[in-house]
Every structure is written in C-alpha cells, then in structure tokens.
Amino acid sequence: MVPGEITGIHYLAPETPISIPASFGMMKSHEFTSQSSCLSNNSTSDEADEEHQLSIIDERKQRRMISNRESARRSRMRKQKHLDELWSQVLRLRTENHTLIDKLNRVTESHEQVLQENARLKEEAVDLRQMLTELQIGSPYTTALRDLE
C-alpha cells in the first residue's frame, strides 16, 4: 500500500472495511475529508435553499390568498352597494309612479269635467240659437225688415 492511499473506511463497524474505488486512491485523506464535508455542506445548503424557496412560495401563496380574499370582499361590497342603489332607484321610481298616477287621475277627472261642461255649453248654445231664431221670427222689427225688401 502506498502512503496516503485509502483502502477502506471503518464506519460504525470496524470489522467490515468498505472498499473505495481506485480513482479515489490518489487522494490524500484530508482531501477526502474536506470533500465529504463539502458534500455534506452542499446537501445542507441545498436543503436550506429548498426550504427557503418553499417558504418564499408559501409566503407568495399566503399573500395571493389574502389578496384574493380582499378582492372578493371589495367585489361583494361593490355588489352590495349596487344592490342598495338599485333598491333606492326602485323606491324612487315607485314614488314617482304613484305621483304620476295621481296626477293622471286628476287630469282625467278634469278632462271629464271639461267634456261635460263643453257638452252643457253646446246644448246651451243650441238653446240660445233656437230662442234667438224664435225671437227674430216673432219680432216686429224683423217683420218691418221683410216688408222693406
């Protein structure tokens, strides 16, 4: 065996040596130790990076979830406000409708009264014309006018 060459590692079981491939034979024992600790540090570092990335992803998910909840809450508030405005409009239009119906009823009633008065005045005009015609026929003035002709 060449000095610095590693033939086996005794780990937890000193009776059973582990064979190391020949390519590792050129390494010195302190190089092997530093490489294995580097691998160990890299795996720990990779795990830490992975955990950090997962925590960033979880944080983003949490922020997105909170943002979505806020957006949904604002949407519900807008919807409620719109419904309130629509109900207000319904009440206003109902009131306006009742007002217009009352006004229409008053105008219709007035119209009926005007029609009745108009019919009465027409009858009165006919009666007055009739009386005037009768007065003219029996009047001495109209007789004198006929004689002059």
From TrEMBL:
GO molecular function, one term: DNA-binding transcription factor activity
Domain of life the protein comes from: Eukaryota
Keywords noted in UniProt: Coiled coil, DNA-binding, Nucleus, Transcription, Transcription regulation
A GO cellular component annotation in the UniProt record: nucleus
SUPFAM superfamilies: Leucine zipper domain (SSF57959)
CDD domains with a match to the protein in the record: bZIP_plant_GBF1
Signal peptide coordinates: none
Coiled-coil segments on the chain, per record: 104-138
Domain BZIP: 58-121
Primary localization: nucleus
UniProt-annotated location(s): Nucleus
Gene3D superfamilies: 1.20.5.170
InterPro entries tied to this protein: AtbZIP8/43, bZIP, bZIP_plant_GBF1, bZIP_sf
Name of protein: BZIP domain-containing protein
Organism: Castanea mollissima
